[in-house]
# Entry
Amino acid sequence: MPLLFLNEKSWGTASDPARAERAMADFVAVVRAAAATGGTALVSEVDVKALEIAEGYPVNKWIGANPRNRALWQRLRALQGRSPVRSVFPAEDAADHLEYRHDGELVLGLGAAHFMDGIAVSLPVARQWQVDSVTLERSELTEDDDGTLEMRHDTVDVRHLSAEPHLNVHLDWIRAARREGVTTGSRIWDSCADLYPHLRFLPRVEGQLSGLNPHWVVPVRRALERLEEAVAAWDPASVAEPEWRTKVSPEGETRKRVCRFTDLDGETRTFDLHARFTPGAGRIHFRLVPEERMIRIAHIGSKIRPEI
# Structure
């Protein structure tokens, strides 16, 4: 899974050459340190060589300024991935269903870092990028249970690096992400007993996870993590259901009939409670099993449509 995403908005800021030189050295150092820890490439929308370090100071000019810069460039070049940032978003949903902005400006790299549960990396010229976390405005087109489309707006925080001290803040997370390595739907299924001890899955879910759209792996993983956290803290003797950490709602009476599945004991039951994941109308359908302090999951995929 891509981990490091270049913040394209941090380049081309007005600055004197000396400050730009220092910023570029810090940038290469933090990318190399993060890549060495997490074993990943730097994903950017365009070739870094096509960018300006500061206004009027292109990367090409910096490379040719002295042999040290050329050596730094070669180290950075070896870490740059070939796929553009846009490739991590579902092509049919990225433009219309999900958008990230910072101070009102569209941000591809920062948005991809959040969507993929990764880390954004910035060139530390401007002060606003000299931080270990950046807040973004997110706009997301969601579908309600009745089919109504609604644009939802909120703010999210994305992990961020622009100097080596920031790496220490995220080091434990980077190591855990590398260790778990859950990058496909099949890996979610194979690891579900260890990762989600309070969630049980019907056998039919294995096929759904094995065929899961790669762009949905991280959103599904996040949704399952939040369900696991909620159920782990649940006391069925005190409250009827967990304190959910993601939006969970039941289906209306007219739709409950499409949410009936054969349970683990062979009985047919209604799994109408559902959490959502996006982009698109992703659903995780489940039912509560209070006697086991668990939930049982019957469906992970697109919104269940009635059979015609």
